[in-house]
């Protein structure tokens, strides 16, 4: 006799519905799983057999065949333990067949029948609601994360026995608590701009970058405050919209960064990988691809400190994700696409000793050493950094007087006003910042007058701007206009944008 149970297959940061079919027939005792399972799914046979027996339920003595449909999708992970076990029990008529067809099942089984948490429950809940299912039966540790999706009844369970009793209508689960918002700032206390002395030009650059979602490079001698400025950037970023929060929460549900999430991730991510990080760790990869740092920083900040110390090949892997806003990783079995719309923030010294542009200290590096050091960063990657901000050594007077500047909260209010203008401008388009504008949108919202065209002609010739560099300056000018609440890009906005477009080759 055969029976089927609904579940999901997680692909990238999305999930597709699948059907677990179980057939019990007379014949020699065997247990076969088909439908493109990976090693973890194949190993589930012994876990399922032991869990069913140790729950005092019958395991078939005949031939058991389990099919994971559709067969062309590769099935990976341990979340299929529970639906396979339920399908086998249903095939033996041990549970009520009408009830389990309206629910999606997922969970890992222990040998004693306990149900252990799995990753991706939020993504599974989104898929369950999208495809019309009414219930989601999953480990109790994942219940709050799944409850973020409204309109879906969450059934938290801790053992196979509870699942069977629920399907037999002899046990009812406790109500799941309403999830809360996760406040990332409590977990990651950032630097306040008021704590950074001097560096007014760099702070203004941070404000522009935060307002438009632009990439930036901070370069200067050691101890000038580059890392502190980068750590202060998240403190002036605006809160995410509900759509952005859902995107980020789905990513961290798959990556399982915080274990089982207890609420939406409301604050923008901040990732700062070490310079020994591999290319796969930066952009994602593996036999079964997982999100990399550029995806974990989606809608937030990816900070690369000591940029030239990173492997050049790893940095070159970032070029396409930063430009396109997504990463596509192809394998023989499938292709996976992860979002990567983050702000790339990089910091570096101007030379190996760090004092090439420092008037107060003599540089000990040869000309060739400085050239080789800067050559570690390719021109195409530098061209994707909208702002290049020089961070000079802080003057002694500013350090000793310790006069506090504007706080992050004050600057953040201006940033939020600028972002609100952009959200209203791009509503129904699917983007949230000026940095995301394509050529068509730039032609519509980035027009400049005759005086502005003259400035850009001169700048293009003198700075040898590429087409990409030209458009990025226009986008920056559009952001500066938004900060000043101007509807049109003025020559003064272009002039300020150009002050942040420097080349390290000079």
TrEMBL record:
Domain AAA+ ATPase, first and last residues per copy = 212-395
Recorded hits in Gene3D superfamilies, A to Z, give: 3.30.230.10, P-loop containing nucleotide triphosphate hydrolases
Any one GO molecular function term: ATP binding
What's a Pfam family this protein contains? ChlI
The family database entries (InterPro entries) matched by this protein are listed as:
AAA+_ATPase, CHLI-like, Mg_chelat-rel, Mg_chelat-rel_C, Mg_chelatse_chII-like_cat_dom, P-loop_NTPase, Ribosomal_Su5_D2-typ_SF, Ribsml_uS5_D2-typ_fold_subgr
Q: Identify its protein family.
A: Belongs to the Mg-chelatase subunits D/I family. ComM subfamily.
Write down the NCBIfam families for this protein, in alphabetical order: YifB family Mg chelatase-like AAA ATPase
Name of the protein: Mg chelatase, subunit ChlI
